[in-house]
């Protein structure tokens, strides 16, 4: 791995992320806060970028979306993970996960971006 790169493996997806140093700033990747990951949802012109907490990757509903991504694209996606469902379906899943998580504890969201 080259200088300034990080490797990240999530549920079988292997990503290389370029690491940029800021002068006294919190280190983030293209506006993605620590503890979150950017993904793409949808296909074609419908496709949108979302920033989600990494804890989502352990949730059964999100794991199902990752399984669909694996079936569509395989494990070796280059760059951002793409979830091939409709954006509205993803928003519904995200809402269910958030409601469930808010019953258990309060967490800082990644959705202000």
Write a structural description.
- The strands form 2 sheets. Strands 4-3-5 form a 3-stranded mixed beta sheet.
- It has 113 residues and is an alpha+beta fold.
- The termini are far apart.
- The protein is globular, with a radius of gyration of 15 Å.
- The protein has helices spanning 60-73, 87-104, and strands at residues 5-10, 13-18, 36-41, 48-53, 81-83.
- The longest helix has 18 residues, at 87-104.
- The chain contains 2 helices and 5 strands, in the order E-E-E-E-H-E-H.
The fraction of residues in strands falls at: 15-25%
Q: Number of helix segments?
A: 2
What's the alpha carbon Rg, rounded to whole Å?
A: 15 Å
The average pLDDT value, as a whole number, equals 76
State the end-to-end distance: 29 Å
What is the helix content?
25-40%
Are there runs of 5+ residues with pLDDT below 50, and where?
1-9, 13-28
Give, in spatial order, the strands making up the sheet with the most strands: 4-3-5
Indicate the overall shape: globular
**Series of secondary-structure elements, N-terminal to C-terminal:** EEEEHEH
Question: Main sheet?
Answer: 3 strands, mixed
Secondary structure category = alpha+beta
Total E-strand runs = 5
